[in-house]
Amino acid sequence: MRESGKGSDCACRCLAGERSTRRGFLALLSFIGLDLAVVPVLADPASERPKEGDFLVSIESEGTDALALKDVPLGGPPVLAWPMDPASNTVRKESRLNKIVLLRFEPAALNETTKERAIDGVVAYSAICPHAGCEVSGWAADQQLLECSCHYSHYDPRAAAAVIDGPAPRPLAALPLKIVDGKLAVAKPFTGRVGIVPT
Q: At 8, is the pLDDT very low, low, confident or very high (cuts 50, 70, 90)?
């Protein structure tokens, strides 16, 4: 049975001529009975990349206690963390690309680029290797290098996570830090793409 009327005419026009416009999209949602208040936010806050002002929480923590400088041992080993929205206490752990590796050094041991991104010697990098997407959680303590356990790429966290050896095509993306209320917080988004870059 054919349905006629203004509602169906509007829907047809929306589908045919206004697909790329916001008005057409909203009209279509309205016609099919969806209210924007009911439609979930397309990006899950727990999957979003770290944002300025996010605190960092240990991946081993069940709670939402933000990390402080004292929680990152001088000279290693690394501390793995997730970003957390301080307003909602949403830990952004639904995407493995948000996993962060933290290390602390004497500020004098850092090169200039790394010093600009660090706070009191604490540096933060993506924990995802850009070669094959494995986790960078190994620590060569004698050389103070981060290591990917899959294919053994090594990164120098004191020199912007430069690749020392192995098949990794580029350094780890850095996450600039700051201190907010005595806690480690994100100062700016990742400095580059996290994980594998499609070719």
A: very low
> What pTM value is reported for the model?
0.78
Kindly state the DSSP code that residue 195 receives in the 8-state scheme. S
Instruction: Give me the residues paired with residue 90 across strands.
Output: 85
Residue spans of beta strands (DSSP E) within 43-153: 55-58, 79-85, 90-91, 100-104, 122-126, 136-140, 145-148
Judge contact between 53 and 175, C-beta under 8 A. Answer: no
Q: Which helix (H) or strand (E) holds 116?
A: helix 112-117
Could you tell me the end-to-end alpha-carbon distance of the chain, in angstroms, rounded to an integer?
50
The one-letter amino acid code at 129 reads C
> Distance between CA 50 and CA 56 in Å, rounded?
9
Domains of the chain are: 1-39 (no CATH), 55-186 (2.102.10.10)
Distance from C-alpha of 28 to C-alpha of 17, rounded to nearest angstrom? 12
What digits encode the pLDDT tens for the residues 124-155?
Answer: 999 999 999 999 989 999 999 999 999 999 99
